[in-house]
Amino acid sequence: METQSAFYQKKVLILGLAKSGFTAAAVLHRLGAFVTVNDAKPFEENPDAAELLSMGVTVICGRHPEGLLDEGFELVLKNPGIPYDNPLVQEAMKRGLPVWTEVELAYRISKAPFIGITGSNGKTTTTTLLYQMLELDSKRPLIAGNIGTVAAGVAEQAEKENVIVTELSSFQLKGTEAFRPRIAILMNLYEAHLDYHGSYEDYSTSKFKIAENQTQNDLLVYNADQAEVAAFAERMASTKVPFTLNGRSDTGASADDRFLYWQGIPLLALEEIMLAGRHNLENAAAAAAAALLWGCSKESVIQVLKTFAGVEHRTQFILEWNGRKFYNDSKATNALATKNALEAFPSGIILLAGGLDRGHSFEELRPYMTRVKALVAFGETAERFGNFARECGVSDVLSVLDVDAAVDAAVGLAEEGDTVLLSPACASWDQYKNFEIRGNAFINAVHRATALYTKR
Fold it and tell me: Per the database record, which ranges form the Mur ligase central domain (predicted)?
């Protein structure tokens, strides 16, 4: 890690604003860097740009000027969502300029160590579980990254006594260079975000960057049940700490059909863990391992596992109405996440699904579609999802415009004992800016529709 003074009078170009770009620009400006921000959105529609301008940051909005890179920049820091085939990004790399995401900046300016969590699924739940365990045990954790708090802003304020628990996407990790967490957690790896990465190889390579700079003094907590993840772990210099759900093990965290174990000793009976589902048991095992490695007491770990009920938009219980239960799993943006949600409910599911059509298969849902009583499909994939459900033997299939209409249809279909589950298996971007907005639309529609039916 570098000192914050390393950026004094350094000339930095920031591509893209949103939360990460705005925070990185403000942090670098306070560190004395010469910052220029370039964002495609017109200035009059860009309050973040106006605020940065008032601070004295150079701002160029609404266009990407030719020759922008001729201004002598030493570093380009881009919003994670900007793809690498962007012409400015391509030109910067061609010129040999470092192209980072703000996670790299956060690492270089932080006085505090990092714990990094990545994987195709389970990142947010694992990150939150781990944070709560560390917090309960007075380990002074800070939470950052893809979970919603920009890492650079957290790192700027962190002290050496803190630990920054950081959820990391493949987009963020691809733009790192020296990033080295004291503990890296690799949950799992499945095909995802190929529209951004272009190939599974690029996606997996980006995920693996979480541990590539680690030494034997660092720890890698990894999913030993996935052959590809286990093979990657073996290649790393880190000290390896596996977790497995395939029976009791004397190393790392493990689980059988009765207990969660730590180093072969029972930690907690599975029936006492609040979160349901095999995927959440993976999350619990990984978080418990990292917390115990950081010095947390078993009592703190156990208490959190007994009481933690989940995070927003991840199999989030909303309400029970006339014997029907409603769950928001809007964060399920791929088929694997939806499979995990379906696995948690034995039968009687009214599934609300659909969204952006990336062309990916729904096949891994097939064994669990017997639990689906009815499908209400929406968005770009509505027709394709509906055809798949009929192939799987789901006789009651409806296609509607959006989540609001899907809730109305589901409330009409659901009977006492049924579960209405929003678990889209698709990204939200065809109709909603992000999965949070989609999830909130579901929550609001559930409250509206159930209240309306109650009045009838």
Answer: 117-291
Whether 121 has a binding-site annotation, put simply, is yes
The response to whether 419 counts as a known ligand-binding position is no
CB 441 within 8 A of CB 348: no
4 within a domain of the structure (yes/no): no
239 is in an annotated binding site: no
Q: State both tokens at 370.
A: 């017997």
Q: Decide: 187 and 118 in contact? Cβ < 8 Å.
A: yes
What count of other Cβ atoms lies within 10 Å of the Cβ of residue 150? Answer: 24
DSSP string, 255-291: E-SSEEEETTEEEEEGGG-SS-SHHHHHHHHHHHHHH
User: Radius of gyration of the chain from Cα atoms?
Assistant: 23
Are residue 85 and residue 213 in the same domain, yes or no? Answer: no
For residues 55 and 26, the answer to whether their CB atoms sit within 8 Å is yes
CB 182: neighbour CB atoms within 10 A? 18
What's the rounded Cα separation, in Å, for the pair 123 and 180? 18
- CATH code of residue 291: 3.40.1190.10
Is 125 marked as a binding-site residue?
Answer: yes
DSSP state of 422: E
> Tens digit of pLDDT for each residue in 379-438?
999 999 999 999 999 999 999 999 999 999 999 999 999 999 999 999 999 999 999 999
Please tell me whether 123 is known to bind a ligand. yes
Instruction: Name the pTM for this structure.
Output: 0.79
Angle (nearest 5°) at CA 175 between 86 and 168: 120
